[in-house]
Amino acid sequence: MNNIYLIGFMGCGKSTLAKNLAEALNMHCMDLDQLIEAKAGQSIRELFDEKGEEYFRDLETYYLKETSNLKNTIVSTGGGAVGREVNRQFLKAQMTFYLEWPFEVLYSRIAGDEKRPLSKSYEQLLELYQYRRALYEESAVYTIGCQDETPYLLVKKIIKLLQEK
């Protein structure tokens, strides 16, 4: 099976859903942020603080493209991967699912999370969410409404869409 990509805002459950989906479909699972941290030998927070967001985004673009060499893998991307046009074009050409949640739910999950370098004030996060939302929609093949759904039901929704394609 071709790779499947999960995109969405911070806290939307990409990593968790990727693991559950990989298990259900007997596929591999890869978290792009974890890959970057392992390759760079630093946390994302450290990369942002020491080398800047642009450097991190360069790594993100490089490793996102490298995932095309993988097979049978669910790839969980970082929330900001859609920020670059080249990444959006890449994702649009894949089997990409946008995990859509209302901002208030996401904010309750990420507020105060020190590991997230872009986790700032409520207003700043809301502005970032509103900006990225259109980018997620542009990058995705499917948009999955996640509110009031369990991970199990979300996996079932995605599998159903894959079977219908």
SSE topology sketch:
Layout: E1 4-7, H1 14-25, E2 28-31, H2 32-40, H3 44-51, H4 53-66, E3 73-76, H5 85-92, E4 95-100, H6 103-110, H7 122-139, E5 142-145, H8 151-164
Parallel strand pairs: 1-3, 1-4, 2-3, 4-5
Helix pairs in contact: 1-8, 2-4, 3-4, 5-7
Q: Key terms for this structure?
A:
5 strands, 5-stranded parallel sheet, globular, alpha/beta, 165 residues, single chain, 8 helices
In short:
This protein is α/β, with parallel strands linked by helices and 165 residues long. It is 55% helix and 13% strand.
Nearest-integer average pLDDT: 93
Distance between the termini: 13 Å
Q: Structural class from helices and strands?
A: alpha/beta
Uncertain runs are none
Shape label: globular
Sheet bearing the most strands, described? 5 strands, parallel
Rg measurement, Å: 15 Å
**Topology pattern, helix = H, strand = E:** EHEHHHEHEHHEH
Record the strand order, biggest sheet. Answer: 2-3-1-4-5
Helix percent band = 55-70%
Q: What is the number of E strands?
A: 5
Beta fraction:
5-15%
- Number of DSSP helical runs: 8
